[in-house]
Amino acid sequence: MHYRLGVDVGGTFTDILLIDTDSGRTFRAKTPSTPHDQSAGVLAGIEKVCAEAGIPLSEIGQVLHGTTVATNAILEGKGARVGLVTTAGFRQVLQIARSFVPGGLAGWIIWPKPEPLAALEDTIEAVERVASDGSVVVPLDEDALRVSLARLRGVEALAVSLINSYAFDGHERRIAEIAAEELPGVPVSISSAVLPELREYERTITTVANGYVQPQVARYMDNLASKIADGGVAGALNILRSDGGLASAPAAAANPVNLLLSGPAGGVAGAVWVAEQAGFPDFLTFDMGGTSTDVALVEHLRPRIGRETKIGDLTVRSASVDVRTVGAGGGSIAHVPELTRALRVGPQSAGADPGPAAYGRGGEEPTVTDANVVLGYLPTRLAGGEIVLDRERSHAAVARIAEAMGLPSVEAAAQGIVDIVNENMFGALRLVSVQQGFDPRDFAMVAFGGAGPLHANALGRLTGSWPVVIPPSPGVLCAYGDATTSLRDEASRTYIRRFSRLTDTELGGLLAELAETAARTLEAEGVGRDDQSATYHVDVRYHGQGFEIPIPVEADTGLEALGKAFDAEHERLFSFLLGNEHELVSARAAVSGPRPNVRAVALAAGGEDASAAVVSTHPIWVEGGWSDASVYDRSALLAGNVVRGPAIVVEMDSTTLVLPGHAATVHESGSLLIRPLEA
C-alpha cells in the first residue's frame, strides 16, 4: 500500500489527490461538496480518483484530510450545548470576557457582543482554589460538586476551567472523574490539557470551544472512518491540524479546537512543498476558492504560526498558521446597493448550490465566475468536464450590473467586478505582509485554488510579488498539502520568570521536558524517536508589559541570544525598544514526524517555444478591448517553455490567465513562473 490520499473539503468542491509515493505520480479528482453529509462527497471523490488510477481502494495506505467541520459548527452556531465548571466566584468569566471592542471609537455602540458558547445557566462553580505557584489554597469540595453537576443533566459536552489550573491540574482531573460518574457519556474537556497557560478568559473560551465542537467532530470522524473502511480503504485516517501538522483521527476528535483552520493550513503546507521544489523559500500564499480567499506569509519555507485562531466573532488561543480570510471567491456575488449606487462584490456567495449563473443550476445573481466567463477568461468546461458553463446566463446576469450602474457595456461591468475583487484580495495580502512589517516585493507569490490562477497575475501586479508561482494541479493543492505533511504534536506551559531569575540550564530543561511530552504522543502513534524532530518557541515580553511576542529558538538557545532576538522582533513590529528587563512568559515545543517519501516529478526539457501546447485561440477582454489569446494545454508544456501573454493555460482543476506584458516560464518541477516581460 504505497498510495497516500489527500482530501480537502471546501465550500464548493471536495478535492482529492492520490499520490504514488514510489514514482511521485499523482491522480486528482474534484467533486461537488455535500454540505448535508461531507463524508458522502469525500467517499465519492475517493472512488473517482481510484478508478482513474486503476487501483482498488485497498491500495490506499493513508488518508490525510483537511476538514471544515469544526469551523462550520462555529460559524453556523450549530455546536453542542456546553456546560462549564469554574472556580467559585468566576462563574461569569465568559460574560466579562476580555476588554476589547473591535472597530472605531463608536465600536462599543454598534458592535453586537456575541453570545458565549456556554450559557450562564449551564455554568456552575466548584468550591476550590489554587495559587499561581500551584499550591492548593482551598481543597476541592467533591460533595458540593456532585450536587451542582446534577443541574447540568442535558448538556452535550462539559468544559472545566479553574483558576491557575495551568500550575496544578489535580482539581480539574478529579472533576473530570466525578463528571464521568454523574454525567455518563458526556465528553469532558479540561483546560489544563487543552491550554495549560495563564489568562483565565483565553483558557476558558478555548476549552469551551473545544467542547462546543467536540460531539459534531467526533460524529463526523466516526462516520467518515466507517464509510471509507466499508468502501475498502484499509489505511489509517489522519486529520490536518490548524498549525499545519497531522493528528490521528482519535487525537483530532479529542482536541477539535486544534482543527478550526484545518482546511486553509493544508493549502499553506502544499504551497511550501511547491515553493521548495521551485526554489523560492520566501513567499506569500494566495488561495482563492469558490467561497473565500485565504492568504498567508512564509519565510524560509516556514509558515508564520500564530498563537490565536479567529473564526467569525470567536478568538481562541490555539496554534494555527497565520492565515487571513476574506469573503472573496469565484462565487462571490456582485451587487449595487440602492443607497450608494456603488459596485460591491461579496462577501455573500452563491456557493455550490445553486452556484454562479454560468452553472445553469438556478443561480441568477452575477458572480466573479460569471464576470470571468463574460471576459473570456474561463473555458466552457470545468472540473474535467463535470461542470459546463453557460455563457448566455453569465452575460444576462452581469448585464444587470451594467444597467444598474449605467455602464456602456457588459464587459465594462465584468471588468469592474474583477477589479474590485482583486482589490479586496490585495487588502488581505497587505494584512499578512505590510501590516506585519514585511515588504511584499521581497516575496514570491504561490497562487492556487480553483480561481486563484485566474487572478494571480493581476495580484502580482498589485503587490509587486514576483514571480507568481502557479503549481501543478493548483485547484487541488490543499489536498496535496494534506498528503505531503507529517504527524505533529505540541506541548506548552506557562513559566513566568524574569531573565535575572532564570538560567540557560533552566530554560533548556524546560524546553526538553516539553519536547519529551510531545514526543511521547507521536511515539504512541507509531513514530519512533529517531524519526522525530522538534521546534521550539518561547513567549517573551519586557517586564511590565501586558502582552508577549513569540520567538523561535533552538534547544540550546541562551538567554542573551533570546533577548537580542526579542529586541529585533519588537523593533520590527513596533519600531522602538524599552529598557525594561526581559521576562519569559510561556514556552512551547512542537515535535513532528518524518515527511512522507513523495518523489517530485521532473518535466522533460524543452526550448522556449511553447507552440506545441497551443490548442486554440480565444478572444479575451483586456485593457479595454478584445484581444486574441492563445490557449495552452498545460499537460503538453515542457520545462523551459515560455508562455507569453495574453494567454490562457487550461487543466482539469484550474485555469491560469497570463496578462499582456507578462510571460510564464515552465519550471522543471511543473510550476509556472509568471513575471513581467522586462524582468
Task: Give a verbal description of the structure.
With about 675 residues, the protein is of the alpha+beta class. Among the domains are: about 130 residues, Rossmann fold (3-Layer(aba) Sandwich); about 90 residues, no CATH class; about 100 residues, no CATH class; about 80 residues, no CATH class. Helix content is about 30%, strand content about 25%. The protein has 17 helices and 37 strands. The strands form ten sheets. Strands 13, 14, 15, 20, 25, 26, 33, 36 and 37 form a nine-stranded mixed β-sheet that branches. A hairpin with a 5-residue loop joins strand 11 and strand 12. The longest helix is centred in the N-terminal third of the chain and has 31 residues. It is globular and about 80 Å long. It starts with a strand and ends with a strand. The model has no long low-confidence stretch (mean pLDDT about 85). This is Hydantoinase/oxoprolinase family protein. Pfam families: Hydant_A_C, Hydant_A_N, Hydantoinase_A. It comes from Streptosporangium longisporum. InterPro entries: ACX-like_C, ATPase_NBD, Hydant_A_N, Hydantoinase_A, Oxoprolinase-like.
